[in-house]
Structures are given as C-alpha cells and as structure tokens.
Design a protein that fits this description.
Blueprint: E1 17-18, E2 23-31, H1 41-51, E3 57-69, E4 72-86, E5 92-96, E6 100-105, H2 111-129, E7 133-134, E8 136-145, H3 153-156, H4 159-162, E9 175-183, E10 186-195, E11 213-222, E12 226-227, H5 230-251, H6 254-259, E13 262-263
Antiparallel strand pairs: 1-13, 2-6, 2-8, 3-4, 4-5, 5-6, 7-12, 8-11, 9-10, 10-11
Helix pairs in contact: 1-2, 2-5
Length: 264
C-alpha cells in the first residue's frame, strides 16, 4: 500500500546543497489594495534611494492587459506603470506597482540571502507608504532540466510525476500537468512537464530556450487579507519556501541530487 503523501507536512527531508541546481528563477510577490500614490515620483524617488545600493538601475514599463471584443483579442493599456529596479547583471530584480511589490532572481544563492533581500524591500515600502494590509503573498521556484539530464529523466524524477515525459510516445510534442493542493487558506500549485524548443508556459517568468526541456514550477501562496506585519510576512514566506523544497524533494530521486552535484 502506498504511503500517504502530505505536501504540507513539516517532516521534510534534510536539505541538500546542489552545486549545479536546475533552479532558473525564484520569485516572491506581495499584493495589496491599490495605492495610487505609489506611482508618483514623490514616492518612487525615496523608494529608489532606499534600495539603490543593490538595485541601481530603474526601468519603467507600461502594463497592458487583454480585452476580448467583437474584433477579437486587443491589447489594452492599463493606468499604472511598473517600476523595475535591478542590478547591473539583471540577475536580481525588484518590481513595484500600485498594487504589488516583488523580488525575483536568476542567481539564487540560498533562502537566507533571498528573504534577507525581500525583507529590505518590504521594510522600505512600509516605511514610506505605511501599509495597512496586504491581500496575497506568494513564493515561486521554477526548475528546468535540459541537456544530457533530460535523456535520463526516468531515473531522475519519480514515476508519479514524470509521466509521459519519460516515455517514447510517438508524436508527443509536449506534455504538462498541473496539480493544486490546499490546506486552510494556503495553496500549492505544482506544474511540470516537457516543453519543445522555444516554448514557455509563462513569458514573464520563464524564458524559452533553443532545446527541449522539462520544467518543475512550484508556486505557494495565501490569498486572504492580513495586517501588514513584516515579521509575519517573512515567517510565512520562509515557510512557503520550506514547503516548496519538501515538495521538490518528493518529486525527485537520489539520482537527481547526484546528477546536479548534491552535497549533504
């Protein structure tokens, strides 16, 4: 009889450091009721100065949405812009809009470093905007397997997860699976599957690459209004990250850890 699997269990495996981790992006995002003044230079200037030592480059982007009408799908310009602050290598980015702030990295080191940076950002935001509440906190880790490891997928990923991606099914172009787990007011969305060259499931967060790949995209969040408390936000964010790690370890085998230079 198969053992019961609880993705929210605190009894996760010991963490293993991977020298060549297939982690391509990590994101933490905090959403809140719109604050129109966040789009003004009176706010953006002081916020920029508070984070500029780490993220010296600012680019503004106008956001767009999609509207379906009689003439088909049309791009529709939204009222607010998104300010993107990043380092010189564009490996670390902070995004600020009227209704969210986010940190993302293509050069993730470890949990302490990431959430230390996230703390700096939300402290700076709260100091200037006196945030009363927030509506949603999410943490997301995106992994990608490609190259020689892709041919060994059957040995690297447990059978319940790898599915058709590790078979020799004729004509299979791509295969994607999405599973959602819930507990109280929390949810964990797990997406995995094989992608053909130059294809992505999310242009904003996962760049397409020339060759085929297999992705494991894990996103945990809580979407309920809560008081804006930095300590509580960080505690929840770290807990989400630990839960994602435990789910990742459930998905992959010991061979996966060895293939990517796993060290206890």
């Amino acid at each position: 009889m198969a053992a019961t699997f609880d993705p929210f269990s605190a009894q996760g495996p010991a963490e293993v450091s991977l020298d060549r981790a297939p982690l391509v992006r990590v994101i933490a995002q905090l959403r809140f009721p719109p604050i129109v003044s966040l789009g003004s230079s009176d706010f953006i200037g002081p916020f920029q100065e508070s984070i500029r030592p780490r993220y010296p480059i600012l680019r503004k982007e106008q956001t767009t949405g999609l509207m379906i009408g009689p003439g088909g799908v049309l791009a529709q310009r939204n009222d607010g812009a998104v300010c993107r602050f990043h380092d010189k290598a564009n490996a670390w980015r902070v995004s600020l809009a009227q209704d969210f702030v986010a940190l993302e990295s293509d050069n993730y080191k470890d949990r302490d470093d990431f959430f230390g940076r996230f703390e700096e950002i939300i402290v700076a935001l709260d100091k200037l905007a006196k945030m009363p509440v927030y509506d949603r906190l999410g943490v997301r880790y995106i992994n990608r397997v490609c190259g020689p490891e892709l041919e060994r997928l059957r040995a690297l990923v447990r059978p319940e997860v790898v599915g058709l991606a590790a078979t020799d099914a004729i004509g299979l172009n791509h295969t994607l699976t999405e599973s959602v787990f819930t507990k109280a007011d929390m949810a964990l969305t797990a997406r995995w599957g094989r992608l053909p060259p130059d294809v992505t499931t999310d242009p904003a967060s996962l760049n397409p690459i020339p060759g085929p790949s297999w992705i494991l995209d894990l996103d945990m969040f809580r979407a309920v209004q809560k008081d804006f408390d930095t300590s509580s936000i960080l505690e929840d964010g770290r807990m989400f990250a630990r839960t994602i790690h435990d789910f990742f370890r459930w998905c992959v085998t010991e061979e996966f850890l060895k293939a990517y230079g796993g060290k206890p």
